[in-house]
Specification:
Layout (H helix, E strand, L loop, with lengths): L2 H9 L20 H14 L12 E3 L4 E2 L3 H7 L3 E4 L12 E4 L3 E5 L5 E5 L7 E2 L11 H6 L14 H9 L4 E4 L8 H7 L1 H10 L1 H26 L5 E5 L3 E2 L2 E2 L3 H22 L3 E5 L8 H6 L4 E3 L10 H8 L4 E6 L4 H4 L2 H15 L5 E5 L9 H13 L1
Helix pairs in contact: 6-7, 8-9, 11-13, 13-14
């Protein structure tokens, strides 16, 4: 099988020649420090050190994710390739970057400000004291300077790139999440205040969710109209769970989130034959029947360290309806284990999840800065060999 055939077989719950491998997406990549260490390791250990780049671009400022070079993807045997939106043309969308003595700051097109410590900082974290809607009312939402989801800059070159990747023999994954319409609500409102609003100010929550979902659907409509025929997987995601369970009651999920998700997912399925990939960290097991009900085909990242996320049980209960994408533990095994521990983790997850297809292997979320090159190589090399 070539890579695309391998991924499609797994997604269709057919047994591929080996488990397909993924690296390089918005939630399946690696921190730039881990990437730099891997590049240095590969250049020293292989006969052709010049094949690996010495420089790279960041594709995600917030998470500090590099654009992983084709030479690295080929070395690791990665079966997926990602198509992403181009940058918007509107000036209001340019990242506003500034700094003070201790921090670097960025403000995005939604008006959300994040900061990263100059000394030892790994990511840009939200500055909740500066949340742009922290004191807003329903009426204020009408006057807010919302981003333009149909900015022509987003689609520039996307169709051509999706077609090129489609012709290349790799599975094409559309990284079209445009932030998360749901998470953006608490980015802009503040995490604690937004979750209190679910009880105290539900009218505001409804209005805010409607607005961000509307923007997201306009963006998706534009992107899928442009490139939907050439893609195999469409990424979507909202973090709706914590380590121990959902972040809200099932009743609240059904009231506030599920109806809007259903509209968004229906739009995706109406615009493309691609499978719908849904990212939700944490203990998501209680939500899986609801997500299946509204058209989710793939669940990611399968956070195996969270409560009730036993992979053997998940496969038994939901394996006929879901593909599992992820599952290699980033919380303990990858950063703290030996290469042999990593190999055992990889073998375990393949044994639990790959029977009759339905599994794409990647790390649980992005590989973090403290993961060694040896453990990164052990992940993908052992998966190909097993």
């Amino acid at each position: 099988m070539d890579s695309r055939e391998r991924v499609l077989a797994a997604l269709n719950h057919e047994r591929p020649d080996r488990v397909p491998l993924d690296l390089g997406g918005w939630v399946t990549s690696m921190h730039k420090i881990a990437y730099e260490n891997l590049l240095n390791y590969l250049r020293k250990g292989e006969n052709d050190p010049g094949k690996y780049p010495s420089r790279y671009k960041l594709k995600d400022w917030v998470q500090q994710l590099p654009d992983i070079d084709e030479s690295v993807l080929e070395r690791l045997g990665i079966d997926t390739r990602y198509v992403r939106p181009s940058g918007p043309t509107g000036e209001d969308w340019a990242l506003d970057k500034f700094e003070d003595e201790d921090y670097y700051y960025v403000t995005d097109g939604w008006g959300v400000t994040r900061k990263r410590p100059k000394e030892g900082g790994l990511y840009y974290d939200i500055v909740f004291s500066e949340c742009p809607l922290k004191d807003a009312t329903v009426e204020d939402l009408e006057d807010y300077d919302w981003p333009d989801p149909r900015d022509p800059g987003f689609v520039e070159g996307v169709k051509e790139e999706a077609k090129r990747l489609n012709d290349s023999g790799y599975a094409v994954v559309a990284d079209f999440n445009f932030e998360s319409w749901y998470e953006n609500c608490w980015y802009m409102r503040g995490f604690e205040k937004f979750y209190k609003d679910l009880y105290r100010n539900p009218d505001f929550v409804e209005a805010l969710l409607d607005k961000t979902a509307e923007i997201h659907m306009e963006y998706l409509d534009t992107m899928l109209e442009e490139a939907g025929e050439y893609i195999d997987v469409v990424m979507q995601g909202d973090d709706l769970a914590n380590q121990d369970g959902p972040a809200m009651s099932l009743e609240m999920y059904k009231k506030f989130v599920k109806p809007r998700q259903e509209k968004i997912f229906d739009l995706v399925h109406s615009k493309t034959d691609a499978k719908l990939f849904y990212h939700c960290c944490g203990s998501v097991r209680e939500l899986l029947p609801e997500l299946i009900d509204i058209g989710v085909d793939i669940i990611n990242p399968v956070q195996v360290s969270a409560k009730e996320m036993n992979t053997e049980e998940l496969k038994s209960e939901f394996g006929d309806e879901l593909t599992f994408w992820g599952a290699i533990d980033t919380q303990k095994v990858l950063p703290m284990g030996s290469p042999q521990d990593v190999r055992e983790e990889v073998h375990k997850r393949i044994d639990h999840l790959s029977n009759d297809g339905g599994y794409v292997l990647s790390a649980v979320h992005n590989i973090q800065a403290d993961v060694s090159p040896e453990n990164i190589l052990a992940t993908f090399d052992s998966a190909r060999d097993y």
